[in-house]
Amino acid sequence: MCGIVGYIGNKEAKKILLDGLCELEYRGYDSAGIAIMQQGDVSLFKAVGKLANLAAVSDGFESKGFALGIGHTRWATHGKPTEANAHPHIGENSFVVHNGIIENYAAIKEELIKEGINFLSQTDTEVIGHLFEKNLKKTNDSLEALRLTQEQLEGAYAVLIITKFENEKIFFMKKGSPPLLIGTSKNNDEIYFASSESVLIGQADGAIFLKEDDYGFVKKDEVKIFNHGEEVAFQVKKIEGTRAGAQKEGYRYFMEKEIYEQSAVLVDTMMGRVSKDRIVLEELAALGDLSQFREIKICACGTSYHAAIAATYMFERNSKIRASAEIASEFRYKEPFLSKDMLFVVISQSGETADTLEALKIAKNAGLKTLAVCNVDNSTIVRESDATILTRAGIEKGVASTKAFATQMLVFWMLSIVLAEKKGSMSNEAIKKEIETILKAKDAVVVEPAMHERLKRLSKRYLHGHGFFFIGRDIFYPLALEGALKLKEITYLHAEGYPAGEMKHGPIALADSELFTIALLPKTLLYDKTKSNIEELSARDSTIVAISPSEFDIADDFIKTKVWDHYMLEFFEMMVVVQILSLEVAVRLGNDVDMPRNLAKSVTVE
Ligand code: F6R
Prior knowledge:
Helices cover about 35% and strands about 25% of the residues.
């Protein structure tokens, strides 16, 4: 989604805002803008497209001495990605950046138009500045005007406002899921704002995570937070780490780097959790006695949802516990039937996905114990859950998720074994064997140069056609879904994931030589069954790319994987294959692999 930054202090404000936006650009990149105020004069710059365009239009501008500024990188929700729709949006004297959605903007806009206000954009955001100014005229008190504005705006949002009426303050307000952080400095002489902690790393010393319905203002040496009319106390969390971890380090794309990092992040995810004969997930202690759970419900979106489906196979097979996965945006409105003996699990790379967060809240309100499997510590989903297992994938910048998925899969594999031990559903011997295999997962995801080269060569044959079917059985079905999602996200080619056995129930009607079937054919799980399904497609002349350790003579293209003795190791190797295949097709098509069109890294609107 959109990214927000803000700064107040004596440093050069434009550089700080642009650096911060650069850190957030992968979240949304339709357009960007900044507004910098010095002694009541505001310099406003906006540009459509990538941040480089904003840097170009603001070239030559520098703030000198005390300044305050706000910045935004946009992922369009209301109105096309044009300069007029780029933030900051302006009232008469105020400038606004906003992440989220104002649900009742149309009614407010109509009212304001009747009162003679002229609107310049098609966005929901523009009402915020005008409404704030209207309330300011009425109350003559900017803080009260802000409180009223927050009261009148429905939806989910994080907002920063600067106004010529108060040229030493940045105002803020937050409702619902979009995150907003205030960064404090060691010398208490400057303040930062950001929609993600990663922006504050290396800049600010501490971070304040704003809570639901917080609003207030900052001066360069003061933070005032209010909630429903009362001033509230806040905690400042120390910021650790460096920005270096997020550079490309010689790879062409972040996505490529992140695919290559998978072995290392799997090791990190196992650290302190897996020993030779035991898996310990101390994080689960917060859930109390695990034997109280008779069922597991998992909610997530996108790639994380694919990990959720895969997890159901592992829970049922290993832990002998009933498990189901649901898409969070569906779950939230279906009036779900929830029972207290259910463990409710959410999965999220970002920890900020609005639909997943709402699903979590529904489960909490129903009195269920909740567990988050998440990659971002301190994210909203982590803070809202009873317990969290962090996936330790590190910052994932490529919009198409790769290493986060790998670590999610590993966490669920580990969790299924912990539950199996608890429930006695696997023998000690079988658990030991499973752990030995888990320890090998890091080897299965190593990218072999020869394999990468082969996929690069093969990719040239798959730049057209009328569609791709990724097919697999059992846990390779969610991997097929994930392979298809990766391909469509970055190549813009149409792809679907299907259970291999389901093809003959309809989809096979599409089969011809221009329909490409990417077949996941592991040796250790349902080999013959899957093979027959592929043969059925081949007989209808679909072009077959088989991924398997066993030669397959009817394949048009064959990608030979290693021989492993466990289906999960085959799963992990094939996961890397489908990731790289998508990457190489996208590169050949000339697409922006890290920032594919229309997408955003963190989806904080429903
Ligand atoms: C796919 C992708 C998205 C996310 C989805 C959920 O490559 O990145 O489908 O998986 O938006 O996001 P998180 O996991 O952050 O909740």
